[in-house]
Structures are given as C-alpha cells and as structure tokens.
Amino acid sequence: MNEKKDNDVTLPLTTQLNNPQILNSKVHKNINEYEFKKYKKRWVMLSLFCFYCALSTYQWVEYSIIANIVTRYYSVSALAIDCTSMTYMFYYIFLIIPGSYFSERIGLRWTNILGSFLVCFGSWIKIFSLNPDGFVITFIGQSFLAVSQIVILTVPGRLAAHWFPSTQLSTATSFGIFGNQLGVAFGFYFTPIIVKNHESIDEIGHDLSTLFWSMAILTTLGFIAVLIFFQSEPRLPPSQTRALQKAKHIENNDSIIKPLKRLFKNKSFMILCNSYGLGIGVLNAVGTLLNQIVLSHFKNAEEDAGRMGLGLILAGMIGSVTFGFILDKTQKFKETTVTVYSLTLLGQIFFAVALWVESKWMVYLAAIFLGFFLSGYLALGYEMCAEYTYPEAESISTGILNIANNIYGIILVIISGELMEIYGDIAVHICLCTSLFFGLIMTILTKDEQRRQDAKNSVQNN
C-alpha cells in the first residue's frame, strides 16, 4: 500500500473505491489492495465548516454575556435570558437521534448546507425583533440557531474521518471543535463591546441592530460559500480505516435501531457519555452564568466578563489543538483524558477562589487556566467517542454523546441559576466542582479501549 503525497494528481482505481459492490467484495477482504490519498482541499472543507459553525456558536452567548442589558431592553427575567442559551441544549436532546440518522442518509455535503442555512435563517429572523416587545421573535430566531447544532455538532469527527489521513484524525477533529469555540470566544468578547449598557433603551436598540445585522450578513456569506464549495468526501479515501468503515457500512446497511442498540450496550461509551456530559455541562453553566457571576463581585464589569470569557475559550482552543496533537503522537488516550479532567477540577477550584478574594487579575488568570483544560476537553471527548464506538457512524455516536452534555448542561444551568439567586456564586462553584469530581471518578473507571487504532494496526499487520 502506498500513501500518495499531499497533492491532487489523479490516481488509478478511483472508480473501484466509489463502487459499493467492489468495496463490499474487495476492500473489506483486503484493504491493502487499494490506494489512498490526501487531498489539499481537505483544509478548505474544514475551514468552511469552522466559519459557519463559529457564527452559530457566537449567538449561543449573545444574550447571556450581556444579560443585565438585555433584561432591561426586553423587560424579561434573568431566567428568560438563560433560556436563550439553554435552547441550544434543549432542542438537541429531542432531535439529535432522528437528525443524526437523517444526516447520515443525506451525506456530509447536504448536512453542512442544511446547518449553514439554519444559522442564516435564524439570524435574519432576529432582525425583526428590534423593539422592546420583540423578545418572542428573537427567541424564535434563537431556536432556529439552536436546531442548527443538531447537525453541526456531529460534523467534526465525521469530516475528519472522510477527509483526513489516520495520522491527522485527532488534529482535524480538534480544529473542527476550534471553530465551535472560536465563535463562543468572539461572542464573549465582541458582544459587550458592541452593545453598551446605555441609560436610553433606544440606544441599546441601536447597538442590538448593529449586532443583528452583522450576524445576518456574515451568516448569509457562510451559507453561500458552503453551498458552492463544500463536498461530501474525496474520490479516494484518505486512510485504511475510512475505506474499511465505508465498506462495513455498505455491507451492514443498518437502520438506526441496530447502531443504537450496539451503542447502548457499549459500557465504555455509556460511562463516557456521563463523564463527558458532566464536564461539558459545567462549561455550559459557566458560559451561561458568567455575566451574573462576575457582576456579583465587580460592579459595571460587563466588558470584563466578556474578556474573561474570551480568555477562557481562547485557552480552550489552544488546549483542543494541543491535546489533539498529543493524541496523534502518543496514542495515550486514557492517560491524557484523566490528566486533563483532573486539571479541569483544579481549575474550577482556582476560579472559585479567585472570585472569592475578588482579585481581578487572578480571576483572569484562573479563567485562562480553567478554559485550557475544560474547553480543551471538548476535542478529547470526541476522540474517545470515536475510539470506543468504531466502526459505528460518527454522526450517531457523537449525537448521543452530545445528548448527555446537553441534558447535564440544562440541569446545571437551572440548578446554578437558582443557587446564584438564593445563596450566591460560592454555592454555584461548589455544585460545579462536585459535578467535575464525579466526572473524574467515572473517567478513571473507564476501560482504555482503542477500537479505531486496533483496526488500523490490524490492517497494517495484515
């Protein structure tokens, strides 16, 4: 077997690898008979996804990071503003399983077209909510954006498997998560700069208009770019594991019921769903309540809260890429995950202490430390999911994985919001640290399974 260099020279046997009958009869029996290829355009596909994904997740924290301002403008409660964030979790729980199955059937290209369209459509609806009585309309727009996450969150691992060689799978998945986190980071940073806490409601409305129109134009450009340029997968598979996975899918041709049964019987995957769910649930709670937590210690600190959120997410983006690189080089999946989870718990404790002593520079430092591990853990979860569930379709396995973190996210946001209202933010930190502690215990107890790596090694040995 010869792996071609990173260029787009046409190779033989193209039709063989795209013919289901040949894949079924030959690739599954002897994968080494076929040629594999890395395409430069794989980076274009990844960039397109990251762009429109960032525009979606930007709007996840669009209201919560300026909660005190938006509650004044729309005359609604803090819980109503928290619900704009929780929509991203709520719809996902109920729609992800049929959505994943539908996504698997329509292919990667149409999955991304649908995702980018929903982001664009939801952003335009918000244009019509620019008056103090328009909260219902803005919530409808937010709901379309939330539904876009049903297809977006299943893409990173799937895109990596379709386009990237086995030596770059973890790195590619990390960059896919990178786009998700980049949007949240920009949302934290730019929204408080664009929308100021003016005395006049009309001036707040003018700032919101600037924000909404900017999002509508950018998401339209993203949708057009995806529609024109995005492709489902290359003519030749990028790796042995992708060719074998493709052959097995053709051979099995399962309905959604059979993969679900296999996944729910997979003990390591079930434990991962809970440990990952608790970890990312804490991230969702911190992101949603950050404005309220910071303002409880520092007066008129809306922009500080945004910058802290920016530092948290940017550090997480660096963490995602770093951990993806470490996994590609070492293949030490469980050791890396346990280490990162332990340091995440330590970071949450550090963040709580920094707020308690009310040292602003220490809070900034703690947010960066926490973000590097907590937000960086996103990519690790996707990689562990791929290892535990191979050769199942990534869209279904990651869909179930994200159901868990959205359920835990909603629960933790609601509980933390109530604790914040009654007891203050210290009770919130105790709740979040306890959640991370239980998640760490489950991570330690999980078996060190590497099914995808074992399949690759088996093919190479054969």
UniProtKB/TrEMBL annotation:
Major facilitator superfamily (MFS) profile domain segment(s): 42-451
One BP annotation, GO: heme export
MF GO annotations: heme binding; heme transmembrane transporter activity
TM ranges: 43-61, 73-98, 110-129, 135-157, 169-190, 210-230, 269-290, 310-327, 339-357, 363-380, 400-420, 426-446
Membrane topology annotation: Multi-pass membrane protein
Statement: the UniProt record of this protein carries the keyword Flavoprotein: no
Alphabetic keyword roster: Membrane, Transmembrane, Transmembrane helix
Protein localization: Membrane
InterPro entries linked to this entry: FLVCR1-2_SLC49-like, MFS, MFS_dom, MFS_trans_sf
Protein origin, superkingdom: Eukaryota
Gene Ontology cellular-component annotations: membrane
PROSITE patterns named in the record: MFS
Main location: membrane
PANTHER family recorded: GH15861P (PTHR10924:SF4), MAJOR FACILITATOR SUPERFAMILY PROTEIN-RELATED (PTHR10924)
This protein's name: Major facilitator superfamily (MFS) profile domain-containing protein
Organism listed in the record: Aphidius gifuensis (Parasitoid wasp)
